[in-house]
Known about the structure:
CATH class of the largest domain: Alpha Beta
Helix content: 40-55%
Radius of gyration: 21 Å
Structural class: alpha/beta
Order of helices and strands: HHEEEHEHEHHEHEEHEHEEHEHHHH
Oligomer: single chain
Strand content: 15-25%
Number of strands: 12
Shape: globular
CATH architecture of the largest domain: 3-Layer(aba) Sandwich
Distance between the termini: 57 Å
Number of helices: 14
Largest sheet: 7 strands, mixed
Amino acid sequence: MHSTHAPLASGTPAAEPFVLDSCAASSNTPDNAFSTARRQLDAAAAVIGLDQEVLELLRWPMREMHVTIPVKMDDGSVRAFHGFRVQYNDARGPNKGGIRFHPDETIDTVRALAAWMTWKTAVMDIPLGGAKGGVICNPKSMSPGELERLSRSYIRQVGRLLGLEKDVPAPDVYTTPQIMAWMADEYSFMQGHNDFGVITGKPLALGGSLGRGDATARGGIICIREAAKMLGIDLRGKTVAINGYGNAGSFAHKLAVELLGMKVVAVSDSRGAIHHPDGFNHAAVMEHKKRTGSVAAFPGSAPLTNGSLFELDVTVLIPAALEDEINHCNAQNIRTSIIAELANGPTTPEADRVLHEKGVYLIPDLLCNAGGVTVSYFEMVQNTSGWYWEEEAVHGQLEKKMIAAFSTVHQEALAHNIDHRTAAMIVAIRRVAEAMKLRGWV
């Protein structure tokens, strides 16, 4: 694998503008993320004949809050932002789920993500429920001061729903450990004492966990390794394409090389996509992204459109960006053996059917990206006990949980001859339904 690449030759065109294909930006159904999540639930419930009254409860969030957030901007004006916190189901324990800052955030997206978090914690068999929060904003256009004031104001609005025994947020799209630190500080001020355990994904100095930074990607890499064993594929020297180069995508690049010996031949972010058949060096791409703000126009790379990245002939495809990137338009053209969903909801139900028929081994988000919430749970345990683990211990415990969950989902898929997403859903809803029945809810 090349450690770096020569600069583009004189006259080489710059990267093409990075836009979603018109097909990828739409769907052949009117479904939004929440209706997609409900269709996935209904499909799994039908396979196991779930009681109708249980299904009806599982199709709705148990509670949600809509808030208006006043923020003083740097120019002295006051701007009203709108945000949400959805607690989907806490039958198995306190709610858990990230907070997203995104200009296109919607309540239905947050509902869907809260539902998926409920199933995710159940698949991993950790004693938590599922929640999600979001604020409609463009953090890339805001100063650090504006982001801090927004973060603190959001917590002032939703803080009454939060607490280590009620609901514990974490970072998500466009939120960071620094944002979590501001939120934990604001919540502690509201309580009148330090209460850093209300947030996970914190900096280490405020009770964060070692191993949390790369946990989502590490869990996904473990799943890829296990899937390759099932398929009889030797991953060393095989190729990977990664859509999305935030925390999960960039760490997936690093770990795919270090732990699996693979070549990452294509990566993308919100501003560009690049390809090189010999693979990219993670440190070099990260340095370029930090310097320019994007992976686009990395020296020696060829530009790609988003659609062509998904259709590359690679062994593993990792969607690590946003929802609905794999859909009815591009599913038939995907040429990969394994899809590892590090993003939440990157594949539509229509695409799921196509990929299953094509024989693609799709590792669903409920399992594949659950390393993040699993190590967040470890962080909650450490915050509660006051005993903090060595990084090797975090990695070891994560490995055990990921392998056990992968095996359970794989066996469920074999037992019913179904796709792995439906299998993961069945594992999850059985566990949540059992808790609801034991508590007398149904």
